[in-house]
């Protein structure tokens, strides 16, 4: 328990000084020494690297069937240990999450190992999908921390991305690659997993005995959505339009609105309301920019993408201020300032070739930086006041 939270709770009248002191004493007696954990982790890493080195040095001398058998035995042994250990009430979260992480990674690498031994040529999304089907119940039923939430989210995104690359050639979408049979529907749905995960996680937070885990998963999904939309806003500032852009964006925007509604209903808090409103703004911006590209061929100057970028991150900053997310508010304000500075250089590129233009651009950048620091210090929510 951080000292910051204890002081915030005391100021809010939730606990008195005597209770806060008892919490400090209890936490001191149950603290996990970071140094010891670091040494244990270093020792485990050293042992693992030694095993990998021994196996790598003798890789060609070991038959493929023997390597797969050893790999499979490791997975079965770890699964048996997890079967016994995970149902225990007094289990340590670090050990349980560590065991789950190792088991999931062993399962993922087993598919790659089998492909290497038998020289299979299946597309990447197939083993990833098989891994998700086999290990999602285990990870979602027993996961508790960032390692498991992040691993599962990366697995979902990797599966969707690899399928898009295999089926639709994602890097060539909109240029000369052969599109899927129903491109608008396909490109709309392939981007929807983060919206589904965000809505499902928000609903699970209220009924699960592990609300912290589902909170992490929801945060990862929301971060993925906002990062992806930000990239799209930037890219569409110079990308040519496609015949099925608006159809796919319509599907994605409906998914964003659905996720916003689900979060708003499941979490009737300031945090839930702010998240839902940010997703609603994101849906409107996503649709609006696609509509502009679909109806006309606007000037490829920096104005349009910059405007949509500033509106999105302005909405995020407003939502963060309402919900009390101090770091998110500061991040949003910082990104807005960086985008304004970049826009100023884009608009004044003709002036950058002379000394006066450089001086003016430098002064403007310093002024924006000063304003950013001033806004972050004066208007950022107080630490420990987030409304979850």
Polypeptide structure, described:
By secondary structure, the chain is an all-alpha fold. The chain has a domain at 65-168. It is built from 15 helices and no strands. The longest helix is centred in the N-terminal third of the chain and has 26 residues, at 93-118. It is globular. Residues 171-177 have low confidence and may be disordered.
Structural class: mainly alpha
How much helix, percentage-wise, in residues? over 70%
Instruction: Give the count of helical stretches.
Output: 15
Q: What does the largest sheet look like?
A: none
Rg calc: 25 Å
Estimate the mean pLDDT confidence. Answer: 78
Termini separation (Å)?
Answer: 17 Å
Low-pLDDT residue spans: 171-177
Percentage of β-strand residues: under 5%
| Topology pattern, helix = H, strand = E | HHHHHHHHHHHHHHH
Shape: globular
What is this entry, summarized?
This protein is mainly alpha-helical and 388 residues long. The chain has helices at 3-11, 17-29, 34-57, 64-85, 93-118, 125-142, 146-168, 183-189, 193-205, 211-235, 245-266, 270-295, 303-323, 326-347, 355-379. The chain is built from 15 helices and no strands.
Key terms:
mainly alpha, 388 residues, 15 helices, 0% strand
What's the topology here?
Layout lengths: L2 H9 L5 H13 L4 H24 L6 H22 L7 H26 L6 H18 L3 H23 L14 H7 L3 H13 L5 H25 L9 H22 L3 H26 L7 H21 L2 H22 L7 H25 L9
Helix pairs in contact: 4-5, 5-6, 6-7, 7-10, 8-11, 9-10, 9-11, 10-12, 10-13, 11-12, 12-13, 13-14, 14-15
